[in-house]
Amino acid sequence: MTGLSGLRHIEAPHPAHRGEPSPMQTISDRPAVHASAGTDLLPVLAGAALAASAAGSVLAITGLNSPLRAPLALFFLVSAPAEAGAFALRRLEPLGRAVASISGAVLIDLLTAESMAALHLWSVRSGVTAVGVISLLLFLLGTGANRSGRDRESKTKNTETRGLG
Fold this sequence. Notes:
It is built from six helices and no strands. It has 165 residues and is mainly alpha-helical.
């Protein structure tokens, strides 16, 4: 229980008092992993998802026989409206944006399939085309391409009054 110096281990002086770093400091002084390593991966994954969904839409619309046609077309049907919805909802928190965009994508797919089946217009090509057009419109909605002139004028007036324009 007692060391050579006559002190118990709990009464021993702290290493920081002897000029040595404490064990907690040595843990935090380790070189950190590059901070943007996780943030650099997200655009790469988004680009890969876009490329796979574009390949799926091309395979489905052209009718090429490929074993990847069905999985990539299904991936397009979910990812295209989800990516467009995530872009349109970019002001939300990341988790809320993901949940809203995925559930919106499923809703768009179901409503498109139900309306096309009710009108006896269903085919794979027309379904993929309709979902692609709806996704494009949702993406354009997110860019603000359909804003009225009043919104743009008020935005420019706000930046001019703040001295930013």
